[in-house]
């Protein structure tokens, strides 16, 4: 009995750790699809609990009742057949599986049948090891931070440039694979303003665990403001001397792969992540806090920070060049 209590205790302790992973929580849904999945998780948990408690109680009872003791002959209690019992343990699991299956099948096919007219579209492209987010209706592009308006159904089109990745935002619903040469679709309806963690849910190579992203769910108004800012071309009129210096370094080293404008046409042929509004982003390289120290760490040796990344080390840059580059990136604000 002590052992059982011990096992249960450790399970609860492990579960309590889940809440420590901030905003990564399937058990704290912030979107309607995630809420539906959560109710299905609860249903299956309750059914499993009933089964487990029943089995444990019967097990303990029988172990005690038929224990070896002086004057006890087990043979006397053995039965060859018991039709009633056999029927019970055949039909009961069938009924339990039915209770699980009906709402789950209903939920999966119900979601597929949902009307997508009036839904917003976002095209997600995964590459080793970053995320591109395109908004075809707005003609804008961003990377690593997906902005969505609250309360709007969004149909997400999933593409991969290289290997199989998987798009997963536990609090909003998911997950769905991104497969090269194929277009997958999923829908999300975020219901709460906030920042949610997203990650690649399929092992895809050395940098897999760093393939993170954020989903920023804004109010309709804030979202529209963000879209308007992204549509504006960046101007260099407000740059300080160091930032202009950094802009030159950027032009010579980074511009062939990275656009600093969120306008889709400005991103054509750019193989690297878009950097519009980089100064406002929470993270650098998708997973580190966006501090000067981390930006420099990333610029100076990308492959050390994120194994397998295609981002090359810039050659022949001085300490001042790096500092200027970092200052310029910081100046890329909304
Ligand atoms: Cu991409 Cu794991």
TrEMBL record:
Catalyzed reaction equations: 4 Fe(II)-[cytochrome c] + O2 + 8 H(+)(in) = 4 Fe(III)-[cytochrome c] + 2 H2O + 4 H(+)(out)
Its required cofactor(s), as named, are: Cu cation
Its keywords, alphabetically, are: Copper, Electron transport, Heme, Iron, Membrane, Metal-binding, Respiratory chain, Translocase, Transmembrane, Transmembrane helix, Transport
Signal sequence annotation: none
The Gene Ontology terms for molecular function here are: copper ion binding; cytochrome-c oxidase activity; heme binding; oxidoreductase activity
Identify its membrane topology class: Multi-pass membrane protein
InterPro entries reported in the protein's UniProt record: CcO_II, CcO_II-like_C, Copper_CuA, Cupredoxin, CuRO_CcO_Caa3_II, Cyt_c-like_dom, Cyt_c-like_dom_sf, Cyt_c_oxidase_su2
Q: Which PROSITE patterns match?
A: COX2, COX2_CUA, COX2_TM, CYTC, PROKAR_LIPOPROTEIN
Purpose of the protein? Subunits I and II form the functional core of the enzyme complex. Electrons originating in cytochrome c are transferred via heme a and Cu(A) to the binuclear center formed by heme a3 and Cu(B).
**Which NCBIfam families does this UniProt record tie to the protein?**
CoxB (TIGR02866)
Protein known as: Cytochrome c oxidase subunit 2
Which organism is this entry from? Answer: Fictibacillus solisalsi
